[in-house]
Design goal:
This protein has 604 residues and is of the alpha+beta class. Helix 5 runs parallel beside helix 12 and helix 9 packs across helix 13. GO terms for molecular function: L-malate dehydrogenase (NAD+) activity.
């Protein structure tokens, strides 16, 4: 309900509006009330519908009286036509009045408060002015309608300004679940730095956890106050379930610990359902309509996300899972190999289960500012696969490193989880870097051949406060075998959690080897290494100087490339020239691979 003492906006062209008044040379002074404390003047309150012509006429008359009588006071209130009747009904019910039209005028005592005295509508106010002050108005109907339209436009503008100011004054409500988790200690300083939501947004952070963690939460809240952040309006602790997520704009779901012991994988999966059901119900009931929910951590990230979507269906599109942690680990491992910085490597795509069976896709990966013989401006990039010559490292150490990081991630202090969540939120509110690919766990709608109804990590971009799946990417097709392996566990996790499947059976590929060759897709050779897929461009068949191509299964001498590498270019050229002079009729094509993209063929 609008405050009846909020000043009404004045019409924009009021100064130029003609006013026809019949009044004596000096209006009579208004009557006053004498009390033991002195003299109290009467204040008139004029309220009406913003587009009411009679309100416009009464307002001009009241302005004239206030300008010419120093002791006359007028307070004006306008209401939008859509809310006028409800506002008037509430006002009359509160003061026990009976009035149904616009405007309504009543009188109050200055500096006294209390119940006002109803004067009536437009006719009663006009009669009062004529009897008390000998002033009347003869405004034309056309002018009344013109001013009424201006009043409505001005009222709408003031409402919009008020909403804008209210948005700036009210802080952004950020709720963090499982706030006693280690990741929360690293997350709060990033959120309150102003880099995530911007320097124009103040935050009100609420730490939510069980009653057992209340003491830890109060210590964390006290330390957060000590940060003296200019962007933190308040931080509080909540352990009451009924009050959770009240008016929340952002909900961050961290790793939770189950209260009971579990002995099987199926029990561990099902233990996530009650909490996700509770969170979904409370978010749906208490949170803001445009709430954004982001799920991070290292355990069952995809499963928790899809369960929250199930129990909070009205905001399913605003629930996502963070995949930047796995992406950051892959970029760091590649950077160490290339002796560059992880920030220089972009567009590494994470497919599948963020905290389980996922695949690292390097087909689009690029490296910027790489120190080599080829150098360019800051926007110049080179494909990562063209710079890594050690296939054994890619197929072995790289995979082992990522597997170890995934296994030990739960024992760390949550720094990577916190940074990944904060970066995803920053992209969500301000957009991801133009042209850059970001991995995000979202609900599948059949993109890239992924089955519908599961949360799957895939390439996206953030813009205009939302995310969009990059379905127009080229050469990122995934074979049916790879897709089956990625989606099988996710589908089974969902079925086990909902009770539609009793036992969880991990997907087993046909071949149990460590290096399973996968079907070729559009000129690309894929090599599967356990839970990772590293894709290398297919090299074109080399041709000799005479234009002939080597026949299948012949024309290859494995030892010659090694010999050429040892001899160097000059030694190889001399050997090549000698063989060509001695055996001019023999054409044997030998390919020396200098890079994954460039082959040098020599005719012997």
């Amino acid at each position: 309900m609008v405050d009846p003492y909020t000043p009404a906006p004045a019409p924009r062209s009021r100064a130029s509006a003609p006013l026809s008044l019949s009044a004596p040379a000096r209006p009579r002074r208004p009557r006053c009330l004498e009390t033991g404390r002195g003299v109290l003047m009467a204040k008139f309150v004029l309220a009406g519908r913003a587009d009411c012509p009679y309100y416009a006429k009464a307002e001009l008359l009241a302005d004239y009286l206030q300008k010419n009588l120093p002791d006359f006071r007028i307070h004006k209130i306008t209401q939008h036509p859509h809310v006028w009747e409800e506002w008037l009904e509430h006002l009359c019910e509160k003061n026990k009045w009976s009035h149904t039209t616009s405007p309504i005028i009543w009188r109050e005592l200055l500096d006294r408060g209390g119940k006002g005295m109803l004067l009536g509508g437009y006719n009663e106010f006009l009669e009062h002015a004529q009897l008390y002050y000998s002033v009347t108005s003869s405004m034309t109907t056309e002018l009344m309608k013109t001013i009424a339209q201006e009043n409505l436009e001005t009222h709408v503008e003031k409402e919009l300004e008020g909403e804008s100011l209210k948005g700036l004054l009210s802080p952004l409500q950020v709720w963090i679940t499982s706030a006693s988790a280690p990741a929360c200690y690293n997350l709060i300083p990033i959120l309150t730095s102003g880099e995530v939501f911007g320097t124009q947004t103040e935050l009100s952070i609420v730490l939510f956890d069980s009653k057992d963690a209340e003491e830890k939460l109060h210590i964390l809240a006290s330390e957060t106050h000590d940060l003296v952040s200019p962007f933190l309006r308040s931080i509080s602790v909540c352990t009451r379930v009924q009050e959770a997520f009240r008016q929340a704009h952002v909900v961050i779901v961290l790793d939770d610990s189950t209260d009971k012991e579990v002995y099987t994988l199926e029990e561990c999966i099902r233990s996530r359902v009650p909490l996700c059901r509770l969170y979904g119900y409370l978010i749906e009931k208490n949170a803001h309509d445009s709430v954004r929910v982001i799920v991070g951590g290292k355990t069952f990230v995809n499963l928790k996300t899809v369960l929250l979507m199930r129990y909070a269906p009205s905001i399913a599109h605003n629930i996502v899972a963070v995949a930047l942690g796995v992406e950051g680990q892959a970029r760091a491992a590649l950077a160490r190999k290339l002796r560059t910085t992880p920030a220089s490597i972009k567009d590494v795509i994470i497919w599948g289960n963020i905290s389980g069976n996922n695949y690292v896709d390097l087909r689009k990966a690029k490296v910027y500012r790489y120190e080599s013989a080829i150098w360019g401006p800051p926007y110049f990039s080179r494909p990562v696969l063209s710079l890594i010559f050690d296939s054994e490292w890619v197929n072995g150490e790289f995979v082992t490193t990522l597997r170890k990081l995934t296994a030990t991630g739960q024992q760390l202090r949550g720094m990577l989880t916190a940074h990944s969540i904060a970066t995803t939120l920053k992209y969500w509110y301000h957009g991801s870097p133009p042209g850059e690919i970001v991995s995000l766990g979202v609900l599948s709608e059949g993109q890239f051949g992924v089955p519908e109804g599961i949360v799957f990590s895939m390439p996206v971009k953030f813009e205009n406060g939302t995310w969009k799946v990059l379905t127009d990417l080229k050469d990122v097709e995934i074979s049916e075998k790879v897709m089956t392996r990625m989606t099988s566990d996710l589908i089974q996790e969902k079925l086990v959690a909902l009770g539609d499947l009793i036992n969880f059976q991990p997907y087993q590929s046909v071949s149990q080897g460590c290096h399973n060759k996968l079907p070729q897709t559009r000129g690309l050779e894929t090599t599967e290494i356990h839970s990772l897929v590293l894709l290398e461009p297919r090299r074109p068949k080399p041709r000799c100087r005479q234009g002939c191509a080597p026949s299948e299964g012949s024309g290859t001498i494995p030892s010659l490339p090694l010999l050429a590498a040892k001899l160097g270019f000059l030694g190889w050229w001399l050997l090549h020239s000698s063989l060509c002079r001695c055996l001019p009729s023999v054409c044997l094509c030998v390919s020396i691979s200098l890079s994954p993209y460039k082959d040098t063929s020599h005719c012997i």
